[in-house]
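Question: does this match?
>
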Amino acid sequence: MTRTAYLALLGVVWATPMLAKSEPRPGVRLTPGAIKTFLENLGYTPEVPSKPDQAYILDLTVDGTSVRVAVMLSDSQNVLWLFARSPQLDSETLTEEIALRLLQSNNTSGPAYFSYSRKDRRLGLWLAFTNGGITPVYFRTQLEHFAQLWARTSAIWTSRK
């Protein structure tokens, strides 16, 4: 197993128990058809996917940092995912030191975690939560935490140290 595959797997293993422990909350269970309306009712303008099983995209700016957040359901529709990905990174940008700093940031980012796609040469930030009892306040809190985490950690892979 390559180091990057190991790091991505470690993030998934670390985040999975937290997802399993989430408590039921009063609210809604989102369906693919309801996500767009839910996001619009929160004041967002989602980019509509070309296929129903794809993600809705939100363009957000936090502390001067732009982030495109994908909002999508798992195949089972039991999990709602937030996902963002970096621009393509070259080997000068993604050094071993930077990869280790991102892995270390997973310790304080939970339940969100970073992954790396060797094929696309992009970093991904993932956050999963149970699709049940989702209230507007809960969703907005999760989305804001996610976007702030992206903004706060973007300096790790954009720096040339």
User: Anything to note?
Assistant: Strands lie at 56-62, 65-73, 79-85, 113-117, 122-130.
